[in-house]
Design goal:
heterotrimer; A alpha/beta; B alpha/beta; C alpha/beta; A: alpha/beta; Rossmann fold; four-stranded parallel β-sheet; 5 helices; 42% helix; C: alpha/beta; globular
Chain lengths: 141, 997, 365
């Protein structure tokens, strides 16, 4: 029997909000699928598009960028800048039919443990539906 | 001038660990004071912990209170941790005695209730809570239950569990499961005594218990308080953020808010200040999430009295029905729906059904419990504040901030907290910052990994993990309880034995653990960055629903971090020496007051004033509502400033332009034809504002007998109004309209002062105040009541139907539509007094050839309206007083003190030391394009023409890395996550799983 | 203060004469113009110190071996020239120059920016084949010979200039149009045959040209989009890529001193290759070439002016310029950012607008 597809999602979580929400969910025993491998970044605005592309090409089935809600950003407006960069990245992925829906940007505040768990669950499920990311399968990348 | 003091030598006790107390503690700690933060409850945060978002920007941003991010200072959300050197936290502690010591010092005695858990040993495993059989109402989430072994909220500060001794049955189940034997059910209360050089009272408020409001239906399940609604709407609340009514869990479609529930009544005659705004915020949050819900607000006055507040109400709540009355009665039908009885302004009675009613409850003072210990008086249950101040008490070393001194909103509380730090600095003096020597980190390290699963290692296959890392040349160890100190020596031995120079520690969520470990490795001579803390227990061991994935996560995440460390190396930068001078622009009350405080701590000041004499708008002010006389205060202040050797006062001087950066600003000044240049580490704008000049015929402006409120106050004080038989005052002249959509904040209070003075001088004079909403927030509501008692007549008008003023037969006539009478009435008046608002008068200011930005009203724009109220977009630039928006004189002074506190952080630095949480520029790679300059949210980057490269001012840089991701060539890069490290981490994260191990 | 004037001479002569007048009136001290390279049949930008060499210039030669914007950067980047330099740019070069001004790679302080309408260019090889003693003009080439990116270019005329030399709707002459006060002032010193009051025929001509190109673009890009769809399509599209990075070297808006994708981040340790090979079984070399192209799209997608210099520089004729046109026109439309439109537009990746993409990040769960 073929093993059930188990998505690998790379998470870039902002130190101030989303990383805190992950802890909050854990400490409150709000559980979520074990599919996200988090990298703590200082700000969602520091996530370079090439990191996301690298992850997708390296075999990530999804990339989740988590930041603070508007006006919440510790760095005043890093999340707004992240938003524009992700919009550009998604536009490019869409044009090239590289499935932009594998890249998620979500605002998850430090007080939103439930939302964190829900987002991870929803993303894991949607990526499961999609199946493995063909970008990572290609031996030519 | 203050004596020289050492870092953490002077001690300040802050009573109360809510938003204001935390803000004060952080501001004081930043200035080198040792701070003890005392909290009565089990954990800090007070009310702000229960509010996920606060007005006026519908966000949190609490973390922005932190002005520095560096190793040794916790770089986490302030809802989780506020650790820093010199900041001690005492929970469960109640003040019971205060003793006066020599030299105005105070000794404070506290009784600390037992937590029944030894905080040093608690590893936050929650096992005690899991087995605890006791359930009691949850004070935090309000509508649920909690255990007797608990934290007030998850990820609490302090992070350790406590046992509620009152409800604990001493069954001992928790003792059995505790892995570190930290529970002692026999623990006794502890007495703590602290000697303080100054005290900040930040005890906040109790929420008014609405139980007595039986007519508003408090006993019905679907009548909730505003705080309960706040929790219902919270993601981590009892319904996980879903709007469900308590009776049946259904989603209400029609919701009413009743403002002033428990405020402005017999028991609480004052206005609770914050409720109009937070009620509006809740309506907005609810409306945003459930756009189909019908929202109604019953209110008495719309007190949106701050710069952005009123427009917030107007702009953001377009679909809300505002009804200006207090409901007479709330009844319940058989389906638990609520029938609200109310009388509309035209005198008609209505009955209307709602699904949910929210009582927007106010603030109750707590000072009666302790004020006498400080020999302080109280006022309606709040600490009595000295006339002429917002935070000063009868004891010059004791300050009361936030709601301790009267009902307050969050932005004012934070300003006051920072102001207290400024006042204390000028009283006690501040130390110069210690310089940590620059330290570099060498490449080619030996890396080790330590797992600290805190006894919770069921899912981990230790042998497999060890073998896996051994294959990669990485030594591993399993060491338990490092955060209790128990495992620390074992960890140290591991480092020494294996001759490591990098270490990954995978342990519990980093609030206390990470800081403790970093301190320890620094003692070994490491740079804190050589230890990488991996947040492992909470998000993985507890968060993952599939335990079979623990091992894989341990391998992947720890290896990724080990690889990150292997690639770590950097040189330390040279420190920058700042100018030791502050420049203050504008010598009005705020500017003078700030100058004096800077001088008090030994900072040189250049204070410039464009007119001939200092004093600004304050020169024109008369006695305030509370009885403060501005004139002698100002005279004295000017005298002191002129006398000070530290202050260079330049009148007839304007600011031409500014160049440079924090620590190294150059200001080009103009004095007549002469150009002057001054270097300054920081710049404070206290440029004031102007009174609105009505257009001709606006409310009769220009007619004989029509006078501005301020001039009228002057005439009252000169006794020139004694002959008047009738006076009509018209409010909101040039405020809350299209042109100036904000409330000018001072005018209603001034109208009340004028009305009371008139009535007291001559009870027969007829005084009518025609206002849209009477903005007498907080304790000044008492003066509104007094004016009513004295027979002052109030008529409400709406913006679209304003009163008109004309002159007929030698008399002034005011016609106004009276909604109560449903008819236009005519009032004849000897004088018509117009409440002319405050408008911005800021002139364009050039900084590095670019204009400094203002807010949409033309005032200086703060970076964050709640938590950084005096800081501007450019680091090292501050604004205070009217330049930042309408405010009372005493509020301007408070803001000036707050700005002083924030500015002194930089002015006390002999050198602006290099940091680790910083971005850098690779000069060779830099194309000098400036993209990083625009990207930087902190103005920490400048174009260096000599280097032909962007340069980072490390003292400002907060290490967010936005520049690095904006820079296409990675010439801008981030020390804490370089691109090769990020790439390698991604690589590792995705590599391991395919092996199937 | 915008005037439109017409000069009745053929465009090449009229333009040479216009520059001669600028020299004569001492309005400029040098000029950067397309000129014949060493008497050969190639046209490259050259700096002229006087009107004497104008005979060697071919302002309308339909070939663009490189983007003059980059050369302008070299002249002005480190210090402004002491005297005014006039530069003649095509619309795509002008738009690239605008981007480079925003990125501080060009200073226009002492530059007189003159642009010209552009019907399109051919590859240098095609041009060389046609050229003999006489330098060919646009009409000497068939439509098929015009570079596809030019045929797709929606900017037959430049949005930013001091003075534009218009040929569309100029009935064989040129239309001089001052687009700034500086340009207006300059034109006062130039002999003009007539003032053009009615510009409708020029506008109609530009509209017609743009529509033609848009139609071609839509068709061409739709086909391309199908071809590159998915990772397989993309890999196939770049199959011949040798990772030489010529595309980035010739790109006028790839202004970095050293490309990130050439940096030490990509100098991997030996064991990494082993590791990757073990994991994948086969590791295509050179590594990260798709990452390079996708990364570059993110870096310059919002500044790309679709000049196609990348494609012209590709040794294996990968239609990289057309692909970049596809992604950049789409992205610029979606993000409401327009490369080369204005000198005062903010830098897109360093800035934001609060009111854009407001649903993003807030998605309900």
């Amino acid at each position: 029997m073929e093993k059930e597809f188990d998505p690998k999602i790379v998470g870039f979580f902002c130190n101030w909000c989303t990383a805190a929400a992950a802890d909050l969910a854990g400490t409150s025993r709000i559980q979520y699928p074990a599919n996200v491998r988090p990298i703590r970044v200082m700000c969602s605005g520091s996530v370079d598009a090439s990191y996301v592309i690298k992850a997708l090409l390296e075999g990530a089935d999804g990339v989740l960028i988590g930041g603070c809600h508007p006006n919440d950003c510790h760095y005043v407006n890093g999340n707004y800048k992240a938003r524009r960069r992700v919009a550009l990245l998604k536009s490019i992925l869409t044009t090239l039919d590289l499935d932009p829906d594998r890249v998620w940007l979500r605002w998850i505040s430090a007080a939103e443990g439930v939302r964190f768990a829900k987002v991870v669950r929803q993303m894991t499920e949607e990526i499961k539906e999609k199946g493995p990311n063909p970008m990572g399968k290609s031996t030519q990348t | 001038m203050a004596k020289k003091v050492k870092e953490f030598e002077r001690h300040v006790v802050v009573l109360g660990g809510g938003a204001a107390g935390i803000a004060a503690a952080l501001a004081l700690n930043d200035l080198g004071f040792k701070v003890s933060l005392i909290e009565k409850q089990s954990h800090l945060l007070g009310t702000i912990g229960q509010l996920d978002k606060q007005f006026p920007n519908d966000a949190c941003g609490f973390c922005q209170l932190r002005s520095r991010v560096e190793p040794g200072v916790s770089e986490l959300c302030l809802r989780r941790d506020l650790g820093a050197e010199g900041l001690d936290i005492y929970n469960l502690s109640t003040l019971w005695n205060v003793e006066k010591l020599k030299g105005e010092r105070l000794k404070l005695y506290f009784n600390q209730e037992p937590a029944y858990i030894k905080p040093r040993l608690c590893v936050r495993c929650r096992k005690c809570e899991d087995v605890c059989p006791v359930e009691v109402p949850d004070e935090f989430n309000l509508l649920g239950k909690r255990k007797a072994a608990y934290t007030r909220y998850p990820m609490a500060i302090p992070p350790t569990w406590v046992i509620d001794g009152e409800n604990c049955t001493r069954c001992g189940e928790c003792v059995k499961v505790c892995p570190t034997d930290c529970i002692d059910l026999e623990m006794q209360p502890r007495e703590i005594s602290l000697e303080a050089d100054a005290v900040v009272i930040a005890t906040g408020f109790s929420l008014i218990d609405p139980a007595y409001l039986t007519e508003l239906g408090v006993r019905f399940p679907n009548v909730v308080t505003s705080l309960e609604l706040e929790r219902i709407l919270s993601d981590m609340g009892p319904t996980q953020g879903e709007l469900k009514r308590p009776s049946d869990g259904s989603e209400p479609k029609k919701v009413a808010f009743v403002f002033c529930a428990g405020s402005r009544d017999r028991l609480h005659p004052y206005c609770s200040t914050a409720c109009c705004m937070y009620g509006a915020k809740e309506a907005r949050m609810l409306g945003d999430k459930y756009p189909d819900t019908e929202l109604t607000i019953f209110y008495m006055d719309r007190r949106g009295y701050g710069k952005p507040y009123y427009s917030y109400m107007e702009e953001t709540l377009p679909d809300v029905r505002w009804i200006p009355c207090r409901p007479a009665k709330v009844e319940e039908d058989q389906d638990n729906n609520l029938i609200v009885h109310y009388e509309s302004e035209d005198g008609k009675f209505h009955k209307e059904e709602f699904d949910l009613v929210t009582l927007v409850v106010g603030q109750e003072g707590r000072a009666d419990d302790f004020a006498n210990l400080f020999e302080l008086e109280t006022n309606e249950g709040f600490v009595k504040i000295e006339v002429g101040s917002e935070i000063g008490t009868a004891n010059p070393k004791v300050f009361a901030i936030g709601s301790a001194g009267g009902p307050k909103d969050l932005p004012d509380s934070i300003t006051e907290a920072q102001a207290a730090a400024g006042r204390i600095a000028s009283l006690l003096g501040i130390p110069k910052t210690r310089n940590t020597p620059p330290k570099s980190v060498e490449p080619f390290p030996k890396v080790g990994v330590v797992f600290d699963p805190v006894g919770d290692d069921d899912g981990l296959d230790k042998d497999a993990i060890k073998t896996f890392f051994a294959e990669k040349g990485i030594t591993t160890a399993f060491i338990n309880y490092t955060e209790t100190g128990k495992g620390l020596s074992e960890l140290e031995n591991f480092i020494k034995e294996k001759e490591l120079d990098r270490l990954v520690v995978a342990g519990p969520a980093p609030n206390k653990a990470e800081r403790l470990l970093k301190e320890r490795v620094q003692e070994l001579g490491w740079h804190p960055a050589q230890l990488e803390y991996l947040d492992f227990r909470e998000p993985v061991l507890w968060g993952y629903e599939d335990a079979s994935k623990f091992n894989e996560a341990a391998l992947t995440l720890a290896l990724a971090h080990a690889e990150k460390l292997r690639l770590l190396s950097f040189d330390s930068a040279e420190p920058v020496q700042p100018f030791g001078r502050a420049l203050i622009v504008g010598a009005g009350a705020a500017g003078l007051w700030a100058a004096r405080q800077f001088a008090d701590v030994g900072v040189s000041v250049t204070l410039i004033e464009k007119t001939e004499q200092p004093g600004g708008q304050a020169r024109k002010l008369s006695r305030t509502l509370e009885g403060f006389e501005p004139a002698p205060f100002l005279e004295n202040l000017i005298k002191k400033v002129k006398k000070s050797k530290k202050i260079e006062l330049l009148t007839n001087t304007t600011l031409d332009r500014i160049e440079g950066e924090l620590g190294k600003f150059t200001a080009h000044l103009k004095r007549g034809e002469k150009e002057l240049i001054r270097g300054a580490a920081i710049i404070l704008f206290a440029t004031g504002a102007q009174e609105y000049e009505p257009k001709k015929d606006e409310f009769g402006w220009g007619l004989e007998g029509v006078i501005s409120e301020r001039d009228f106050a002057g005439r009252i004080s000169k006794g020139e109004t004694d002959d008047l038989k009738s006076v009509v005052m018209i409010q909101c002249v040039g405020s809350r309209n299209e042109e100036h959509p904000y409330c000018s904040r001072v005018c209603c209070r001034r109208a009340l002062a004028n009305a009371i003075a008139l009535k007291e001088a001559n009870p027969k004079v007829e005084v009518t105040i025609i206002a849209r909403d009477v903005m007498s927030w907080g304790l000044s509501e008492l003066y509104y009541l007094k004016a009513r008692e004295l027979g002052v007549n109030f008529i409400r008008y709406e913006k679209d139907n304003p009163p008109t003023v004309s002159r007929r037969d030698g008399k002034l006539v005011v016609s106004v539509f009276d909604r109560l009478l449903d008819a236009t009435v005519e009032l004849s008046a000897g004088s018509v007094v117009l409440a002319n608002g405050i408008v911005a008068s800021t002139l364009p200011i050039l900084y590095n050839d670019k204009p400094v930005s203002f807010d949409k009203f033309g005032f200086f724009a703060e970076v964050n309206p709640k938590f950084r109220p005096t800081e501007l977009e450019v680091d090292g630039m501050f604004a205070a007083g009217l330049a930042k928006g309408p405010k009372r004189l005493t509020e301007s002074l408070t803001e000036a003190s707050a700005a002083v506190a924030k500015a002194l952080v930089f002015l006390r630095a002999e050198k602006l030391a290099p940091k680790y949480y910083v971005a850098r520029t690779n000069t060779r790679r830099c194309a000098f394009c400036g993209i990083c300059i625009d990207a930087c949210p902190n103005s920490a980057r400048v174009m260096d023409d000599d280097l032909m490269s962007a340069r980072v001012i490390e003292a400002i840089c907060q290490g967010c890395g936005i520049c690095a991701s904006a820079c296409p060539s990675q010439a801008a890069h981030l020390l804490t996550l370089e691109s090769d490290q990020a790439f390698r981490m991604i690589d590792v994260m995705l590599a391991q799983t395919e092996r199937g191990d | 203060m915008v005037g439109i004037y017409k000069k009745d001479l053929n465009p090449r002569e009229a333009t040479r004469e216009f520059f001669a007048e600028l020299f004569e009136a001492n309005l400029i001290s040098s000029a950067l113009l397309p000129a014949r390279k060493a008497g050969l049949n190639q046209i490259f930008p050259a700096l002229l110190s006087s009107k004497d060499s104008l005979e060697e210039t071919f302002p309308f030669a339909p070939v663009m071996p490189l983007s003059t914007a980059v050369q302008l950067s070299k002249i002005t980047r480190f210090a402004d020239p002491e005297h005014t330099v006039a530069v003649l740019l095509r619309p795509c070069e002008s738009r690239a120059a605008v981007e480079l001004v925003k990125l501080r790679q060009i200073s226009l302080d002492n530059v007189l920016l003159i642009t010209r309408d552009c019907p399109g260019t051919v590859e240098p090889e095609t041009f060389e084949e046609k050229a003999s003693d006489t330098i060919p003009g646009f009409s000497d080439f068939t439509e098929d010979q015009i570079r596809p990116v030019c045929r797709m270019c929606e900017h037959p005329t430049a949005p930013v200039a001091d003075i534009n030399i218009g040929t569309f709707g100029a009935e064989g002459g040129i239309i001089l149009e001052a687009k700034t006060d500086k340009g207006e002032e300059i034109l006062k010193h130039v002999a003009l045959d007539a003032e053009l009051s009615d510009t409708s025929s020029r506008e109609a001509s530009l509209k017609q040209e743009t529509e033609k190109r848009t139609a071609f673009m839509e068709k061409n890009l739709a086909e391309l989009k199908k071809e590159v769809a998915g990772i397989e399509g993309l890999v196939k599209f770049f199959a011949k890529c040798i990772d030489c990075h010529n595309c980035r070297t010739m790109c006028p808006v790839c202004y970095c001193n050293e490309c990130f994708f050439d940096s030490a981040t990509f100098h991997f340790e030996g064991p990494r290759y082993e590791e990757w090979t073990q994991r994948r079984g086969i590791l295509a070399m050179p590594r990260d070439e798709i990452l390079f192209h996708l990364g570059r799209m993110n870096h310059i997608g919002l500044s790309c002016v679709a000049c196609g210099m990348c494609e012209q520089a590709c040794p294996h004729d990968i239609r990289v310029g057309q692909l970049f046109t596809l992604i950049s026109t789409t992205a610029q439309k979606e993000l409401d950012i327009h490369a080369g439109r204005s000198l005062t537009d903010p830098l897109p990746l360093a800035t934001f607008r609060e009111d854009e993409f407001t649903e993003m990040g807030e998605e309900k769960v």
